[in-house]
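Example record

One chain of 317 residues, shown exactly as stored in the release files.
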Amino acid sequence: MRKPFTKAWIARLVSSLYLLAPFTVTAHSDNHYGHRSDGHAPIGVMADHFHNQGEWMLTLRTMNMSMKNEKTDFTVPVTASTPLEMETQMTMLGGMYGLSDSITLMMNLPYLDREMEMLMPGMMGGAASKVTTEASGFGDLKLGGAVRLRETETDRLHTTLMLSVPTGSIDETANMAMPGAMQNEMLLAPMMQLGSGTYDLISALTYVAFQLKTSVGAQWKNVVRVDENDRDYSLPNQNQATAWLAYNVDDSFSTSIRGQYFTRAGVDKRWDVGIGANYISDGGHRIAAEYLVPVDHDTDSVMEAQDYWAIGYQYSW
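Predicted structure tokens for this chain:
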């Protein structure tokens, strides 16, 4: 069973942001590069920047990932419920506030729509039938902050520490029935649930360097599940390493290419590549889009990722 998450533990996490502050570069440069369109990473990269004291930013992202069963042999009759395809649509509201020139507070809250098509075995050797299951609602709330470690005229470095609070449901069910049988309400698989059910620690390190017409960036990100949830399981820990190259067409528009390596402990490893674009306008408005596809996927699951896209709008003041 999940153990209570103490207030003292949460306080220690928050205070760690301040403990890092003495090691930051207190003198920063309000450089021109940071205000270019490529001053932000591709929209699929979270927590890619920080803010000066008193600055605010709101973000609205919509993201979509599709998956497909590429492993099951459908030339023989299925004997158990088998996933065919899955699609996740996520809309995320995010906010950032510059508490000081060294520390930026962050939060985001996702709303998820998940849909999975499954093949159910027939009764008494009968034909299999397709069933669609759905789950929608708010996911896990994430709170934390970014700490500025370095900023010069041509590069910047920061770390991110966040706590994922289990506000998303892990009790989603669906009515499942085999032909000729009464409907049966079943608990959906963990990958169809809206949250992890656990308190999770998220850490990241992000570096970006600027040149006259280009910029390069890299981020390492880690997700650690602190304990088991109320259903006596925890999702796998995650690691993600990503790097991108952006070309600044002009100060308002840039394009990018990005590579990403993603792992879930004991489950899968995946390489993705993609393209993106950023557009900024006067007044703090930014619109961005990105599209990624997997180029190599090694997984113990029957489901393999097909593609991923994200579109976002940001407003800062």
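Notes: The longest strand covers residues 103-120.
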